[in-house]
Specification:
Layout: E1 3-14, E2 20-30, E3 33-44, H1 55-64, H2 67-86
Antiparallel strand pairs: 1-2, 2-3
């Protein structure tokens, strides 16, 4: 009987504001047959520190997070903060 554990990124999504969401799946296999599967989801916002993030997710972030995307995201966050403070 051989039990193995594999963990992979099976989904990466970039949404309109530039945020990147990814899903990591961990599978437990016994003699090649899957006996368990769990998911972990994470999200990143434009210009966020990518330390410790999987390399394939970093590559997507570096492509999606252009200077324009980062500026638009930061402007939207500043506008939302200003709206909250004026209420």
């Amino acid at each position: 009987m051989s039990i193995t554990k594999t963990t992979i990124i099976d989904q990466i999504t970039v949404v309109e504001n530039g945020s990147v969401f990814y899903r990591e799946v961990t599978r437990i296999l016994e003699d090649g047959n899957q006996i368990s599967q769990t998911f972990n989801r994470s999200g990143l916002v434009p210009a966020q520190d990518l330390t410790g993030v999987p390399a394939n997710v970093v590559a997507i972030c570096n492509t999606a997070w252009t200077a324009e995307v980062i500026a638009a995201y930061q402007a939207a966050q500043a506008a939302a903060e200003a709206a909250r403070n004026s209420a």
